[in-house]
Amino acid sequence: MKAVTINAYEEAPQLTDVPEPKVGPDGVLVRIRAAGVNPVDWKIAAGYLDPVLQVNFPLILGWDLAGVVERTGPAVTEFAPGDEVVGYNRQDVAQFGTYAEQVAAPVRTLARKPASLSWEQAAGLPLAGLTALQSLRAADTGSGDTVLVHAAAGGVGSLAAQIAVALGARVIGTASERNHDYLRSLGAEPVAYGDGLVERVRELAPGGVDAAFDFVGGDALPASFDLVKEASRVVSVVDTAVSGSGGRYVFVRPDSAGLAELGALADAGKLTVHVDRELPLAEAAEAHRLSQEGRTRGKIVLTVPRNG
Questions:
Q1: Could you tell me the pTM of the whole model?
Q2: Domain match, 18 and 94 both
Protein backbone atom coordinates (compact mmCIF):
# COMPACT_ATOMS: atom_id res chain seq x y z
CA MET A 1 0.00 0.00 0.00
CA LYS A 2 0.96 3.66 -0.26
CA ALA A 3 1.92 5.61 2.84
CA VAL A 4 3.82 8.77 3.76
CA THR A 5 7.01 7.81 5.58
CA ILE A 6 10.29 9.13 6.91
CA ASN A 7 13.39 7.05 7.64
CA ALA A 8 15.07 9.54 9.99
CA TYR A 9 14.29 12.74 11.85
CA GLU A 10 14.28 15.93 9.74
CA GLU A 11 13.85 13.91 6.55
CA ALA A 12 11.22 15.19 4.11
CA PRO A 13 8.07 13.04 4.14
CA GLN A 14 7.77 10.88 1.02
CA LEU A 15 4.99 8.77 -0.47
CA THR A 16 6.33 5.20 -0.48
CA ASP A 17 5.22 1.58 -0.78
CA VAL A 18 4.94 -0.28 2.54
CA PRO A 19 3.49 -3.67 3.61
CA GLU A 20 -0.19 -3.82 4.46
CA PRO A 21 -0.90 -3.64 8.22
CA LYS A 22 -1.34 -6.65 10.47
CA VAL A 23 -4.57 -6.59 12.48
CA GLY A 24 -4.49 -7.66 16.12
CA PRO A 25 -7.29 -9.39 18.06
CA ASP A 26 -8.74 -6.08 19.34
CA GLY A 27 -8.03 -4.04 16.22
CA VAL A 28 -9.70 -3.20 12.95
CA LEU A 29 -8.31 -2.57 9.50
CA VAL A 30 -9.48 0.81 8.25
CA ARG A 31 -9.28 1.96 4.64
CA ILE A 32 -8.57 5.64 5.08
CA ARG A 33 -10.48 8.28 3.17
CA ALA A 34 -8.84 11.31 4.78
CA ALA A 35 -6.18 11.99 7.41
CA GLY A 36 -6.02 15.08 9.61
CA VAL A 37 -2.79 17.04 9.86
CA ASN A 38 -1.75 18.32 13.29
CA PRO A 39 1.28 20.28 14.54
CA VAL A 40 2.37 17.22 16.52
CA ASP A 41 2.93 15.40 13.20
CA TRP A 42 5.71 17.67 11.98
CA LYS A 43 7.08 17.98 15.51
CA ILE A 44 7.49 14.20 15.65
CA ALA A 45 9.11 14.22 12.19
CA ALA A 46 11.58 16.87 13.37
CA GLY A 47 12.50 14.85 16.46
CA TYR A 48 11.06 17.28 19.00
CA LEU A 49 9.17 14.51 20.84
CA ASP A 50 12.05 12.04 20.88
CA PRO A 51 12.68 12.47 24.64
CA VAL A 52 9.16 11.30 25.48
CA LEU A 53 7.96 9.18 22.53
CA GLN A 54 9.37 5.93 21.20
CA VAL A 55 9.62 6.29 17.41
CA ASN A 56 10.47 3.39 15.12
CA PHE A 57 11.64 3.91 11.54
CA PRO A 58 10.49 3.79 8.86
CA LEU A 59 7.74 5.90 10.43
CA ILE A 60 4.32 6.33 8.85
CA LEU A 61 3.19 9.75 10.05
CA GLY A 62 -0.23 10.86 11.32
CA TRP A 63 -2.66 10.16 14.16
CA ASP A 64 -6.06 11.32 12.78
CA LEU A 65 -8.24 9.31 10.42
CA ALA A 66 -11.64 9.00 8.82
CA GLY A 67 -12.37 5.87 6.84
CA VAL A 68 -14.21 2.57 6.40
CA VAL A 69 -13.70 -0.64 8.35
CA GLU A 70 -12.47 -3.42 6.05
CA ARG A 71 -11.72 -6.18 8.54
CA THR A 72 -11.99 -6.75 12.29
CA GLY A 73 -9.93 -8.75 14.76
CA PRO A 74 -11.55 -11.82 16.32
CA ALA A 75 -12.25 -10.09 19.66
CA VAL A 76 -13.95 -7.03 18.13
CA THR A 77 -17.70 -6.64 18.60
CA GLU A 78 -17.94 -2.83 18.37
CA PHE A 79 -17.49 -2.55 14.59
CA ALA A 80 -18.14 -4.53 11.42
CA PRO A 81 -16.84 -4.29 7.85
CA GLY A 82 -18.41 -1.33 6.08
CA ASP A 83 -18.75 0.84 9.20
CA GLU A 84 -17.63 4.44 8.74
CA VAL A 85 -15.31 5.52 11.55
CA VAL A 86 -13.12 8.31 12.85
CA GLY A 87 -10.09 7.78 15.04
CA TYR A 88 -7.31 9.32 17.06
CA ASN A 89 -4.92 6.45 16.45
CA ARG A 90 -2.17 7.29 18.94
CA GLN A 91 -0.42 4.22 20.26
CA ASP A 92 2.42 3.76 22.74
CA VAL A 93 4.99 3.53 19.95
CA ALA A 94 4.92 5.78 16.89
CA GLN A 95 5.40 3.75 13.72
CA PHE A 96 2.17 2.89 11.94
CA GLY A 97 0.32 6.17 11.39
CA THR A 98 -2.62 7.38 9.37
CA TYR A 99 -0.98 9.10 6.38
CA ALA A 100 -1.68 5.89 4.49
CA GLU A 101 -4.20 3.99 2.43
CA GLN A 102 -4.87 1.64 5.35
CA VAL A 103 -4.15 1.44 9.06
CA ALA A 104 -4.69 -1.12 11.81
CA ALA A 105 -6.30 0.73 14.73
CA PRO A 106 -7.27 -0.52 18.21
CA VAL A 107 -10.98 -0.17 18.88
CA ARG A 108 -10.20 2.08 21.88
CA THR A 109 -9.08 4.78 19.41
CA LEU A 110 -12.19 4.73 17.20
CA ALA A 111 -15.80 5.89 17.07
CA ARG A 112 -18.46 6.03 14.38
CA LYS A 113 -18.11 8.86 11.88
CA PRO A 114 -20.59 11.72 12.37
CA ALA A 115 -23.07 11.51 9.52
CA SER A 116 -23.24 15.29 9.19
CA LEU A 117 -19.53 15.73 8.44
CA SER A 118 -17.72 15.11 5.17
CA TRP A 119 -14.77 12.72 5.15
CA GLU A 120 -12.41 15.67 5.25
CA GLN A 121 -14.21 17.37 8.13
CA ALA A 122 -14.39 14.10 10.05
CA ALA A 123 -10.65 13.54 9.62
CA GLY A 124 -9.97 16.93 11.20
CA LEU A 125 -12.08 16.20 14.27
CA PRO A 126 -10.40 13.54 16.46
CA LEU A 127 -7.16 14.95 17.91
CA ALA A 128 -8.23 18.59 17.90
CA GLY A 129 -11.73 17.81 19.13
CA LEU A 130 -10.56 15.56 21.95
CA THR A 131 -7.90 18.12 22.94
CA ALA A 132 -10.61 20.77 23.16
CA LEU A 133 -13.05 18.54 25.03
CA GLN A 134 -10.49 17.27 27.55
CA SER A 135 -9.20 20.81 28.15
CA LEU A 136 -12.69 22.11 28.84
CA ARG A 137 -13.31 19.24 31.22
CA ALA A 138 -10.02 19.88 33.03
CA ALA A 139 -11.29 23.38 33.83
CA ASP A 140 -14.77 22.12 34.73
CA THR A 141 -16.34 24.38 32.11
CA GLY A 142 -20.08 24.76 32.33
CA SER A 143 -23.12 26.92 31.84
CA GLY A 144 -22.70 30.53 32.92
CA ASP A 145 -18.91 30.53 32.73
CA THR A 146 -17.01 33.20 30.84
CA VAL A 147 -13.99 31.56 29.20
CA LEU A 148 -11.01 32.84 27.26
CA VAL A 149 -9.83 30.70 24.33
CA HIS A 150 -6.42 31.59 22.91
CA ALA A 151 -5.93 30.93 19.17
CA ALA A 152 -9.67 30.45 18.83
CA ALA A 153 -9.54 30.35 15.01
CA GLY A 154 -7.10 27.41 14.96
CA GLY A 155 -7.87 23.71 14.80
CA VAL A 156 -8.21 23.14 18.54
CA GLY A 157 -9.40 26.61 19.47
CA SER A 158 -12.25 26.70 16.97
CA LEU A 159 -13.59 23.41 18.32
CA ALA A 160 -13.11 24.47 21.94
CA ALA A 161 -15.08 27.65 21.28
CA GLN A 162 -17.99 25.70 19.80
CA ILE A 163 -18.02 23.07 22.54
CA ALA A 164 -17.92 25.75 25.24
CA VAL A 165 -20.85 27.56 23.60
CA ALA A 166 -22.74 24.26 23.48
CA LEU A 167 -22.08 23.87 27.22
CA GLY A 168 -23.66 27.27 27.84
CA ALA A 169 -20.49 29.27 28.37
CA ARG A 170 -19.70 32.76 27.11
CA VAL A 171 -16.58 32.58 24.93
CA ILE A 172 -14.01 35.30 24.34
CA GLY A 173 -11.51 34.22 21.70
CA THR A 174 -8.19 35.65 20.57
CA ALA A 175 -7.42 35.80 16.85
CA SER A 176 -6.03 38.05 14.17
CA GLU A 177 -8.41 40.67 12.79
CA ARG A 178 -9.01 38.66 9.60
CA ASN A 179 -10.56 35.87 11.68
CA HIS A 180 -12.87 37.95 13.84
CA ASP A 181 -15.96 37.40 11.71
CA TYR A 182 -15.18 33.69 11.69
CA LEU A 183 -15.11 33.65 15.50
CA ARG A 184 -18.42 35.46 15.61
CA SER A 185 -19.86 32.72 13.37
CA LEU A 186 -18.81 30.20 16.03
CA GLY A 187 -20.59 32.14 18.76
CA ALA A 188 -17.44 33.68 20.25
CA GLU A 189 -16.56 37.31 20.97
CA PRO A 190 -13.25 38.10 19.23
CA VAL A 191 -10.33 40.08 20.60
CA ALA A 192 -7.00 40.78 18.90
CA TYR A 193 -3.98 39.10 20.44
CA GLY A 194 -0.73 40.92 21.16
CA ASP A 195 0.16 43.88 23.36
CA GLY A 196 -2.78 45.11 25.41
CA LEU A 197 -4.64 41.79 25.32
CA VAL A 198 -5.37 41.78 29.05
CA GLU A 199 -6.90 45.24 28.87
CA ARG A 200 -8.99 44.34 25.81
CA VAL A 201 -10.37 41.25 27.52
CA ARG A 202 -11.20 43.26 30.65
CA GLU A 203 -13.22 45.66 28.51
CA LEU A 204 -15.45 42.70 27.67
CA ALA A 205 -15.23 41.01 31.08
CA PRO A 206 -14.36 43.60 33.75
CA GLY A 207 -14.30 40.98 36.49
CA GLY A 208 -12.00 38.66 34.58
CA VAL A 209 -12.80 35.22 33.20
CA ASP A 210 -13.70 31.95 34.89
CA ALA A 211 -11.37 29.78 32.80
CA ALA A 212 -8.67 30.26 30.18
CA PHE A 213 -7.25 27.89 27.57
CA ASP A 214 -3.79 28.22 26.08
CA PHE A 215 -3.66 26.58 22.65
CA VAL A 216 -0.80 28.67 21.27
CA GLY A 217 1.95 29.35 23.83
CA GLY A 218 3.99 32.54 24.10
CA ASP A 219 2.28 35.34 26.02
CA ALA A 220 -1.01 33.46 26.29
CA LEU A 221 -0.15 31.80 29.59
CA PRO A 222 0.83 34.86 31.66
CA ALA A 223 -2.17 36.74 30.24
CA SER A 224 -4.40 33.88 31.30
CA PHE A 225 -3.19 33.96 34.89
CA ASP A 226 -3.72 37.74 34.95
CA LEU A 227 -7.33 37.34 33.86
CA VAL A 228 -8.62 34.18 35.50
CA LYS A 229 -10.31 34.19 38.88
CA GLU A 230 -8.85 30.85 40.00
CA ALA A 231 -5.43 29.67 38.83
CA SER A 232 -6.62 26.05 38.83
CA ARG A 233 -8.84 26.85 35.85
CA VAL A 234 -5.99 27.83 33.53
CA VAL A 235 -5.30 25.00 31.07
CA SER A 236 -2.43 24.74 28.60
CA VAL A 237 -1.77 22.11 25.96
CA VAL A 238 1.52 23.83 25.05
CA ASP A 239 3.46 24.69 28.20
CA THR A 240 4.01 22.14 30.98
CA ALA A 241 5.09 25.02 33.24
CA VAL A 242 1.40 25.84 33.73
CA SER A 243 1.28 23.27 36.54
CA GLY A 244 3.92 25.14 38.54
CA SER A 245 1.60 28.15 38.71
CA GLY A 246 -1.42 26.14 39.79
CA GLY A 247 -2.97 25.44 36.39
CA ARG A 248 -3.42 22.23 34.41
CA TYR A 249 -1.42 20.72 31.56
CA VAL A 250 -3.36 18.53 29.13
CA PHE A 251 -1.92 16.07 26.61
CA VAL A 252 -4.78 14.56 24.66
CA ARG A 253 -5.61 10.89 25.22
CA PRO A 254 -7.48 8.52 22.89
CA ASP A 255 -11.08 8.23 24.03
CA SER A 256 -13.81 6.43 22.09
CA ALA A 257 -16.57 7.84 24.30
CA GLY A 258 -15.22 11.37 23.83
CA LEU A 259 -15.15 10.92 20.06
CA ALA A 260 -18.74 9.70 20.18
CA GLU A 261 -19.70 12.78 22.21
CA LEU A 262 -18.06 15.05 19.63
CA GLY A 263 -19.90 13.21 16.87
CA ALA A 264 -23.22 13.71 18.65
CA LEU A 265 -22.55 17.44 18.93
CA ALA A 266 -21.75 17.57 15.22
CA ASP A 267 -24.90 15.68 14.24
CA ALA A 268 -26.95 17.97 16.50
CA GLY A 269 -25.68 20.98 14.54
CA LYS A 270 -23.62 22.32 17.45
CA LEU A 271 -20.15 21.54 16.13
CA THR A 272 -18.51 21.71 12.74
CA VAL A 273 -14.96 21.44 11.42
CA HIS A 274 -13.65 24.15 9.14
CA VAL A 275 -11.23 22.62 6.63
CA ASP A 276 -8.82 25.32 5.51
CA ARG A 277 -6.87 23.21 3.02
CA GLU A 278 -7.27 19.80 1.40
CA LEU A 279 -4.14 18.28 -0.10
CA PRO A 280 -3.49 14.85 -1.62
CA LEU A 281 -1.53 12.33 0.41
CA ALA A 282 1.53 12.84 -1.79
CA GLU A 283 1.74 16.50 -0.67
CA ALA A 284 2.21 15.78 3.04
CA ALA A 285 5.43 17.80 3.10
CA GLU A 286 3.54 20.87 1.88
CA ALA A 287 0.83 20.24 4.48
CA HIS A 288 3.50 20.27 7.19
CA ARG A 289 4.96 23.50 5.83
CA LEU A 290 1.56 25.17 5.96
CA SER A 291 0.94 23.88 9.49
CA GLN A 292 4.28 25.25 10.67
CA GLU A 293 3.32 28.74 9.44
CA GLY A 294 0.63 28.84 12.14
CA ARG A 295 -1.88 30.74 10.03
CA THR A 296 -4.38 27.97 9.46
CA ARG A 297 -8.04 28.67 10.09
CA GLY A 298 -9.40 25.36 11.27
CA LYS A 299 -7.75 22.25 9.84
CA ILE A 300 -5.47 20.95 7.11
CA VAL A 301 -6.45 17.53 5.78
CA LEU A 302 -4.82 14.99 3.48
CA THR A 303 -7.13 13.13 1.10
CA VAL A 304 -6.48 9.50 0.23
CA PRO A 305 -7.40 8.11 -3.22
CA ARG A 306 -9.97 5.33 -3.29
CA ASN A 307 -8.25 2.21 -4.57
CA GLY A 308 -10.45 -0.80 -4.49
A1: 0.97
A2: yes
